[in-house]
Request: fold
Amino acid sequence: MIIPTRLKLYIMKYKYFLLLSLLTLTLLISCRQEKDIKEQMEEKTTVCFTATAEKDNAWLKIDTSSTQIIGLLNFSYPSEKRRYEGQFKGQLYGDTLKGHFDFRVNKVDKWYRNPVSFLKKNGKLIMGVGNFNMIWGSAFFDVKVPIDYEKGRFIFEVVRCD
Reply:
């Protein structure tokens, strides 16, 4: 079948029009997605907590704007001259915030990871104590032994973030 030259030109024009239309649509959609991301960033919710147990203290700052809760967690033990500083990543399961704490001790550039769990009660976070199992070099809570929130030394109370 032989296609006349005029028809070929029309097809070529429509191909470019269709291509240009798709490009414009893609650009508009990507601009809208960028706006959604900016709106989410503006809706970011940061909550800060502090806890004191005798001379020891702790500080937690978390972003609760998504299902993955991320933040910073620090523990200071002045009598031992130790400071644990690092990042918290976790999720909220009902009234329990579970995750892991990637930290370093006294700013030495060696990183460790421990599981952490907080029970949300009366507007406070109670840090739980549990048994660890090591799996491939990482610590996890022993699923056979329940986490004890009564033995937790640190009870975090909401404070203003500065």
Remarks:
- The chain has one helix and ten strands.
- Helices lie at 5-42.
- Residues 46-159 form one domain.
